[in-house]
Every structure is written in structure tokens, then in C-alpha cells.
């Protein structure tokens, strides 16, 4: 918006990355969500909301695992981005976070704009349908869902299957950097009375 830089300096371009060594594009393509408008605010709200709930929920006291999820998701999206020729992956990353949260909170009931009531695992698909109504490409949303499902399956499903095991292991270096030796026993997490967030995503636990 300030015209200090342009999207052309940020977008994902393999040729510029590997041949001209503009390696910053591996990161900056995740940071651009388009001009300030409804779609931009929509992504910012969901990115903040579900990133925070994951960090304070299932990743509480597991900062290294939280960072590893970011790195793993970003790595897969970058590989898939080469195949589907996407130039900005920030929205896909947001959908990945929403997908992982929704699968780990399957009994939370969501309210979308007061029109739809459904359980949390359907939220990424509802958002994809809403994105389609706005005229956006659903490839970005499908990419986020696919990467989120791969992470959820490898981290939460496969280790609990007969003959399964943990294929994703957070590197010891990340644990040494981010994990503290002891958790604060007096910490009380903030109550998430509206897990879906705002008028289009508020929810409550069934039976609560």
C-alpha cells in the first residue's frame, strides 16, 4: 500500500530463487495477502485466531513442535507450489492452520455468518466454498487443506494405528532453542468461549 516494495519483488518464482539467488522469495510469498480489503482482513483474522488457539491449545508447552509444524507445512507448500504454479501461498498457510485446529477440535460447533451451523471439521470446506463465492481460486484452499491433512495424519492418526509410528520428529536443535525445561504450573490458558471467532466462526462445545 505504501509502494515501498511491489508484489513483483515478493512472489514465488523458482527461476529467480534458484538461478538469481533471490532466496527471500521462499518466505515473502507467504507474507503477501493482496491489497487491504475484505479478503485481506479475512485472512488476517483467521490467521491470528487459529494460530493463537493452536499455540495455546494443543501446542501449549511445545513451542519447538509448533515451529516445526510451520517449517514442515511451508516446505510441503513450496514443493506443491512448484507443481501448481502458485505465486503467493499465505492464504494456503492460513487454511492449513484452520484445518489442523478443526481436526483436533472435532466436537466444537461453528456458526458461519449466522447462516450455517456445523461441526469444526467442516470449517475448511465452508471457507473454501466462501472463497469460491468471492471469485477466488480454490486451488489455494485445496493446497492448504491437503498439507494440513498430511500433517494431521502423520502427527495424530498414523502413530495410533496398528503398526504405525511417529514419522515426524521435531529436530533436537529446535527443541534446544525453543522449549523451556519446565512449564509454569500456575499458568491458566485464556478461556476460548468462542473458538470459531467473530460472527462467521463462533462455536461452542457440544454438551457444554
UniProtKB/TrEMBL annotation:
InterPro entries: DER1, Rhomboid-like_sf. GO terms for biological process: cellular response to stress; proteasomal protein catabolic process. It is found in: Endoplasmic reticulum membrane. The chain crosses the membrane at residues 27-48, 68-101, 108-127, 133-154. Residues 198-208 have a biased composition (Gly residues). It is a multi-pass membrane protein. One of its GO terms (cellular component) is endoplasmic reticulum membrane. Residues 183-208 are annotated as: Disordered. SUPFAM superfamilies: Rhomboid-like (SSF144091). It comes from the Eukaryota. Keywords: Endoplasmic reticulum, Membrane, Transmembrane, Transmembrane helix. Belongs to the derlin family. Functional component of endoplasmic reticulum-associated degradation (ERAD) for misfolded lumenal proteins. May act by forming a channel that allows the retrotranslocation of misfolded proteins into the cytosol where they are ubiquitinated and degraded by the proteasome. This is Derlin. It comes from Cuculus canorus.
Amino acid at each position: 500500500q505504501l509502494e515501498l516494495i511491489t508484489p513483483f519483488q515478493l512472489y514465488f518464482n523458482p527461476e529467480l530463487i534458484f538461478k538469481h539467488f533471490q532466496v527471500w522469495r521462499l518466505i515473502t510469498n507467504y507474507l503477501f495477502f493482496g491489497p487491504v480489503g475484505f479478503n485481506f482482513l479475512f485472512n488476517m483474522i483467521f490467521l491470528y485466531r487459529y494460530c493463537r488457539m493452536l499455540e495455546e491449545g494443543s501446542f501449549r508447552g511445545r513451542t519447538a513442535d509448533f515451529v516445526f509444524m510451520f517449517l514442515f507445512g511451508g516446505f510441503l507448500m513450496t514443493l506443491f507450489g512448484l507443481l501448481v504454479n502458485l505465486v503467493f501461498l499465505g492464504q494456503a498457510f492460513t487454511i492449513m492452520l484452520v484445518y489442523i485446529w478443526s481436526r483436533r477440535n472435532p466436537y466444537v460447533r461453528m456458526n458461519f455468518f449466522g447462516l450455517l451451523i456445523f461441526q469444526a471439521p467442516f470449517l475448511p470446506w465452508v471457507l473454501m466454498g466462501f472463497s469460491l463465492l468471492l471469485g477466488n481460486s480454490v486451488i489455494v484452499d485445496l493446497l492448504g487443506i491437503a498439507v494440513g491433512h498430511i500433517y494431521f495424519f502423520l502427527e495424530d492418526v498414523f502413530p495410533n494405528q496398528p503398526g504405525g509410528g511417529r514419522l515426524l520428529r521435531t529436530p533436537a536443535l529446535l527443541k534446544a532453542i525453543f522449549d523451556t525445561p519446565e512449564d509454569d504450573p500456575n499458568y491458566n490458558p485464556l478461556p476460548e468461549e468462542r473458538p470459531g471467532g467473530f460472527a462467521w466462526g463462533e462455536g461452542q462445545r457440544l454438551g457444554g
